[in-house]
Amino acid sequence: MARPQRQVRRWSGFAIALVVASAVVACSGGTGGSGGSGDGDPNAAPASAGGPMGRFPDDKLVLSRWAGDPWTSGQKDAAAAWAKDTGGSLDLDAVPYENLHDKQALALAGAGGYDILYVHPSWFGEFAKAGYLAPIDDKLADPKRNPGGFSADSFLPNVLAQGKYDGKQYCLPDFVSTTVLAYRKDVFEKNGLKPPTTLDEVAADAATLNGKDGMAGIALPGKRGGAVADVMGSLLTAQGNWWFGADGKTTLDKSAAANAVRFYVQAAKNAPSGVLNFHVDEASTAAAQGKAAMIISTTPSLQALEDPAKSSTAGKWGYAPLAFTADKPAGELIYWNWCIAAKSTQQDAAYSFLQWYTSGEQQAKVAIAAATGGATKDFYTNPDVAAKLPFLDAMNKALTTSNPQPSVAAWPKAQDQIELAVQEAIQGKKSPEQAADAMYQAVSSALGG
After folding, report:
1. Where are the beta strands (DSSP E) in 106-188?
2. What single string gives the DSSP state of each residue in 393-413?
3. What's the predicted TM-score (pTM) here?
4. Quick one: which H or E segment has residue 66?
5. What does pLDDT average to over the chain?
6. 292 SS3 class
7. How many angstroms separate the CA atoms of 109 and 107, rounded?
8. Is 93 helix (H, G, I), strand (E, B) or coil?
9. Percentage helix, strand, coil for the chain under 3-state DSSP, each rounded to 5
10. pLDDT reading at 31 higher than 60
C-alpha cells in the first residue's frame, strides 16, 4: 500500500488532535445506533453556498486519518468550516501512516470511538468483511440528504466502485493518483534527447544521463512500504496483466512480471545511492534538489518538484504516463476511501461531512495544495485545477487503462513479498525470472490459489 508523502515541515499554528483510545471513545458518544444524536436535521439546506448539508448542534465527531501536511492542515480548515455551518464539531485523530491501520483496527474491534475513517484499499476489504463500516447506499440515494445534482453518478464509476463490498456502498473516494514519469525538460534538451515515450527509452535515457552534472539518471522508490508494489502494478497493467482476476485467483503472468522486474533493476542501477531506502518522499526530494534527471513516483509525491520553496528545479519538469508500448499508457489506480464507522451513533452528521468533503469543489482545494486528483467527474472539467496540476494530463492518460490498488483482505502479506522480490533482484540475489516466480507464489498463497 502506498504511503502518502510525508512532509517534514509542518505549517505553523497547526495542532493535530492526537487522542488516546479512551479519550476517542468518550468524544464519539459511545457505540451503536445508525443515525444521529436526535437533535439534528440531516435534511437542512446548506447554511452557505456550496456548504455542507444538515444541522447537527449536539454532534461531536472524531475522524481518524494519517498525519502529514498539507493534507491534515487542509482538513483541519475543512473541519472548522463544516462545524461552523452545521453547528457540530469535528476533531482529527491523525497518526503516522505506519500506525494507522493498527490503531483503527484496535478501536473498531473494541468499543469503537471513531465516527469517520480514512481507509486505505489494502485494509478496506478487511474492515468491510468484519462489519466495522456502515453502508451509505440509502444516504447517497436520498435527494434530501444531498445538494442538487449530487449522487452516485457524480463520481467516476470505476473509482466509486472501490468503496463497494458485497453489493453495498460503504465509502466515498478521494486522493486519486497513480504512478507517472517526470523528466527534466532542460536536461533532455541539453543532451539532445527526446522526451521518452516507452519504458525502454526511459531505461536507456537513465543510463545515458547517469552521472551527468552530478545527477543520477532516475530516482524511484525501492523501499518496502507500498510504493514499489504500486510501480509494479503500473508496469503489469501496461502489459495487459494483473495480480488476480475477478474470481480472486492469481492471473499473474510470470513473463510480464519478469519484464517489469527487469526494468526496475535497470532503472535502479542508475538511481541515487541508497535506492533501497527510498520511498516516494525520498525519491521526490532527490529529484526536486536536482539530483536526478527523471523520477517515477506517485503523483502526490511529485508536488515537491513544482514547489519553489522545496525545489531548485521547479518549472523544469515534463510528465508522461508509463508505457511499454508508446500508444498504450497505463497505471495503477491509487485512492483512499472515506467511510463511516458502524458503531458511530452520529452517522447522519458523519455522512454530511463525507458528502461535502468529497465534492468536486472541496476536492479541487485539496488537489491544488496536495497534487492529488478528485473522484468526481466535475473535478476533471475544472480549468483552475488543470492549470495548476501539470501532471494531470499524464495522469489521465495513465488511468485510461488502469487496475485499482488491491483491496482484498489478504493483500498486505502478498504485497510485502512482492516488494522483497524486487529488492532482492536489485541486489542481485534473484534473477528477474526468480523474482517473478516468488511473486507468483506469494500472490497464489495469499489468495488461496
Report:
1. 116-119, 164-165, 168-169, 171-177, 179-184
2. HHHHHHHTSEEEPP--TTHHH
3. 0.78
4. strand 60-66
5. 89
6. strand
7. 6
8. strand
9. 45, 15, 40
10. no
What's the one-letter identity of residue 178? Answer: T
Neighbours of 129 (CB within 10 A): 13
Equal fold, 60-176+334-400 vs 177-333+407-447: yes
Q: How confident is the model at residue 351 (pLDDT cuts 50, 70, 90)?
A: very high
- Distance (Å, rounded) from C-alpha 233 to C-alpha 388? 27
Q: Are the C-beta atoms of residues 218 and 206 closer than 8 Å to each other?
A: yes
Taking Cα atoms as reference points, which of 123, 61, 117 lies closest to residue 94? 117
CA 82, CA 351: separation in Å to the nearest integer?
Answer: 12
Residue whose C-alpha cell reads 535497470 in the numeric block: 266
Report phi then psi at 389, rounded to 5: -120, 90
The pLDDT tens digits for 137-195 are 999 999 999 999 999 999 988 899 999 999 999 999 998 999 999 999 999 999 999 99
* DSSP codes of every residue in 257-301: HHHHHHHHHHHHHTSPTTGGG--HHHHHHHHHTTSBSEEEEEGGG
Note whether 119 and 171 are within 8 A (CB).
Answer: yes
**Secondary-structure class of domain 60-176+334-400 per CATH:** alpha beta
Rounded to whole angstroms, the Cα distance separating 245 from 438 reads 19
Please tell me the total number of residues recorded for the chain in this structure: 449
Residue in the block written with cell 518549472: 315
**Which residue type is seen at 13?**
G
Half-sphere exposure of 332 (CA within 13 A, CB side): 26
Beta bridge partners of 320: 181
- H helices of 87-150, in order, are 97-109, 121-130, 137-141
The answer to whether 183 touches 320, Cβ cutoff 8 Å, is yes
Q: What is the fold, at CATH topology level, of the domain defined by 177-333+407-447?
A: D-Maltodextrin-Binding Protein; domain 2 (3.40.190)
Helix (H) / strand (E) containing 356: helix 347-357
Q: What percent of the chain has pLDDT over 70?
A: 91
Residue whose entry in the numeric block shows the C-alpha cell 497534487:
371
Residue 272 backbone phi and psi in degrees, to 5: -60, 155
- Residue 34 CB coordination number (10 Å): 15
The long-range contacts involving 253-260, CB below 8 angstroms and separated by at least 24 positions, are 254/433, 254/436, 254/437, 254/440, 255/436, 257/232, 257/435, 257/436, 257/439, 257/440, 258/432, 258/433, 258/435, 258/436, 259/235, 259/324, 259/432, 260/232, 260/235, 260/236
Cα 60–chain centre separation: 27
**CA angle in degrees (0–180, nearest 5) for 164-247-100:** 45
Q: Where are the domains of the chain?
A: 60-176+334-400, 177-333+407-447
Residue 318 parent element (H or E): strand 317-320
